[in-house]
């Protein structure tokens, strides 16, 4: 374990007291601590475990070419974790296995209708895998043609004596459903984390959390993004606002939102929604993590970014590269 890769970090962001006032920095939140990805273009050679984490709402469609871009060509990480929402009925796991070969093989998967979580590891890594378990928790949704139920799936794994739980979720949509999303997170956490008596060194949440931009209308939001000032909108992000209030994700980390909002796009392009709905752009797709054993494990975030070149959905995928190291080994 502990490979190198050519992956660059992102620069930080800045906030404004209002959308037109002067700049004021603030990267810490009561619930979520926002950190910059390391400005290095490689995974650490001294890491004990390096993980690539990807989340993508597929909008019920799949393209093998998109999956190839999702996985990437330079795959010198240990674990590859892919969480998808609104996945089509096509066998996404099989397509991803083909796209990730010959370097990685499927170790485990979890599924709740269109919510899926797929875990890949290097070939011949089975001896490092212990206690792999898949779980799910529904929180509502009507299903529909592709089964767009809301909820979460989880994979627990002991990999090389590092105990990890990955949770991929899809929460309720629309800007006015903040309290409902908070309650869904609490229900999922209670079911998939709190009731589990075993300990975890690392907890990773990924998915379409569906939190939106609060009290900013479409035109000013798009104008800021067009002028590469989307960082001004970070202060209005509902997820960070709810974390500030102590409602969700206490003690978690997230990379800086240096990339453009990942929803909603015209399918097949990198242009924001021009349909009759004309959604306000938002960072609906997120990756967060929490270290339980801070005395013995050190983490480094090497990248946190969207994959703008993937155009097959109305969402852009989000990718994080995370490395762990035993401090006292």
TrEMBL record:
Mind telling me which InterPro entries this protein's record contains?
A: Endo/exonu/phosph_ase_sf (IPR036691), IP5 (IPR046985), IPPc (IPR000300)
Biological processes annotated in GO: phosphatidylinositol dephosphorylation
User: Pfam families from the entry?
Assistant: Exo_endo_phos2
Give residue ranges for domain Inositol polyphosphate-related phosphatase.
47-328
Q: Which domain of life is it from?
A: Eukaryota
MF-aspect GO terms: phosphatase activity
Family classification: Belongs to the inositol polyphosphate 5-phosphatase family.
Specify the protein name: Inositol polyphosphate-related phosphatase domain-containing protein
Protein's organism: Brassica campestris (Field mustard)
């Amino acid at each position: 374990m502990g490979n190198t890769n050519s992956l660059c970090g992102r620069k930080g962001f800045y906030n404004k007291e209002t959308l037109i006032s002067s700049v004021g920095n603030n990267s810490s939140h009561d619930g979520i601590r926002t950190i910059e990805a390391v400005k290095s273009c490689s995974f650490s050679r001294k890491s004990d475990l390096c993980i690539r984490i990807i989340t993508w709402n597929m909008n019920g469609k799949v393209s093998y070419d998109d999956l190839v871009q999702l996985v990437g060509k330079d795959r010198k990480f240990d674990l590859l974790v892919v969480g998808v929402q609104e996945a089509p009925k096509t066998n996404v796991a099989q397509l991803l296995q083909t796209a990730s070969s010959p370097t990685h093989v499927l170790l485990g998967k979890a599924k709740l209708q269109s919510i899926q979580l797929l875990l890949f590891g290097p070939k011949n890594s089975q001896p490092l895998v212990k206690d792999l378990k898949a779980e799910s928790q529904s929180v509502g949704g009507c299903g529909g043609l592709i089964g767009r139920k809301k909820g979460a799936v989880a994979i627990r794994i002991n990999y090389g004596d590092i105990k990890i739980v990955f949770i991929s979720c899809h929460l309720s949509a629309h800007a006015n459903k903040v309290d409902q999303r908070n309650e869904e997170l609490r229900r999922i956490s209670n079911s998939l984390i709190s009731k589990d008596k075993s300990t975890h060194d690392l907890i990773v949440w990924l998915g379409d959390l569906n939190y939106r931009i609060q009290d900013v209308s479409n035109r000013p939001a798009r104008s800021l993004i067009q002028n590469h000032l989307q960082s001004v909108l970070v202060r209005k992000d509902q997820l960070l606002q709810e974390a500030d209030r102590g409602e969700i994700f206490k003690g978690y980390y997230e990379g800086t939102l240096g990339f453009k909002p990942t929803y909603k796009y015209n399918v097949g392009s990198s242009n924001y929604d021009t349909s009759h709905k004309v959604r306000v752009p938002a960072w609906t797709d997120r990756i967060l993590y929490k270290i339980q054993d801070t005395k013995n494990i050190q983490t480094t975030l090497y990248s946190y970014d969207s994959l703008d070149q993937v155009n097959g959905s109305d969402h852009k995928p989000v990718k994080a590269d995370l490395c762990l190291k035993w401090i006292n080994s």
